[in-house]
Amino acid sequence: MAGRFLGKTLATVSLSVALASVTLKSLGRCSIAACSNSFSSCGFHLNSNTMSGSNGTKENSHNKARTSPYPGSKVQRSQVPNEKVGWLVEWQDYNPVEYTAVSVLAGPRWADPQISESNFSPKFNEKDGHVERKSQNGLYEIENGRPRNPAGRTGLVGRGLLGRWGPNHAADPIITRWKRDRSGNRITHPISGKNILQFVAIKRKDCGEWAIPGGMVDPGEKISATLKREFGEEALNSLQKSGAEKRELEEKLHKLFSQEHLVIYKGYVDDPRNTDNAWMETEAVNYHDETGEIMDNLTLEAGDDAGKVKWVDMSDKLKLYASHSQFIQLVAEKRDAHWSEDSETDCRGL
Q1: From which residue to which does any coiled coil extend (predicted)?
Q2: Is the N or the C terminus of the chain less surrounded, counting Cβ atoms within 10 Å?
């Protein structure tokens, strides 16, 4: 009993910290770069007014995980009001819909079996062979043999489109450069007066939304390898290149991904694919091409899960997939680049 309570407490505290760092609404017009209490290694800003992960009593950033219909289906989630998202809020009449996609039940190599299968004994909250079942937000609860989403109720149980019970780990490479004119000079925004930062964005084939080119971490794969692989596959169409082209591309990518970088975020993601028993977590990392010379030698070409790819100016007008807009804002703030036309960017009022 003590262990169960400790797990619940740790999950609540650690998730609150992680979600606070990516939940930027409560920061108002504050610039993360100007705050003295941000984590220097990744630009996170913590604020006591942001959501508290499991108790559901504060502002909730667990929104896309409650949307209907569920992606790729006509399945409607049970409605979960804001005040009942948190598991610590008693809700005896909670009756979530059960759904796991046929593509997952078919048993592809990237998916777990059903919990009910006798030969399946997952080791939750730890490394399970080559499969990472630890959450970046700390310990999560197991209820009736199933992991419980640390961010709260979603109105749907099962795995939906996600392969793993519990955390499904992804990596999102944010590749940036300064926007420049034909003479090579940085372009500043006429209102904010700050330099405009651009990032490589893809248009997802599955939902048509623009996003950071990222993907799932393969079992046993290092995050750094996933970041480079996914960018190559989705933004440079590496899977369709010849052997010689792949070797040349690998050399250029090595130059880009071997330089200093910023870990922008690690943890739970508010994703429309999330369920009560399976959820997305990611590590978003910024690789910045200061001079633009590296990316000038790489031709963007959509591939794999991407329908289109292009350079996009960072600003608060962006509407991106899942929590990607928040990740992009963190990069802009950390690089002291243009984000908003609102001039009130001082944190001193907090």
Answers
A1: none
A2: N
SS3 328: helix
Tell me which residue of 182, 189, 116 sits closest to 146, measured CA to CA: 116
46 occurs within a structural domain: no
Domain that holds residue 314: 64-343
Residue 45, Cβ density class (10 Å: 0-12 exposed, 13-18 middle, ≥19 buried): buried
In a domain, 32, yes or no: no
* Dihedral, CA of residue 4, residue 6, residue 8 and residue 14, to nearest 10: -150
Q: How many domains does the chain have?
A: 1
Residue 282 falls inside a structural domain: yes
pLDDT tens over the chain, length 350 residues:
444 444 444 444 445 444 544 444 334 434 433 333 333 333 333 222 233 344 333 445 689 999 999 999 999 999 999 999 999 999 999 999 999 999 999 999 999 999 999 999 999 999 999 999 999 999 999 999 999 999 999 999 999 999 999 999 999 999 999 999 999 999 999 999 999 999 999 898 888 889 899 889 999 999 889 999 989 888 888 888 898 988 988 888 988 898 889 999 999 999 999 999 999 999 999 999 999 888 888 888 888 777 889 999 999 998 898 788 999 999 999 999 999 988 554 433 33
**What region, left, alpha or beta, does residue 14 occupy, with left being phi > 0 and alpha being psi -120 to 50 degrees?**
alpha
How many Cβ atoms sit within 10 Å of the Cβ of residue 187?
14
Is residue 332 assigned to a domain?
yes
Alpha-carbon gap, residue 237 to 5, rounded angstroms:
47
The H or E element spanning position 90 is none
Residue from 65, 125, 121, 126 nearest 96 by CA: 65
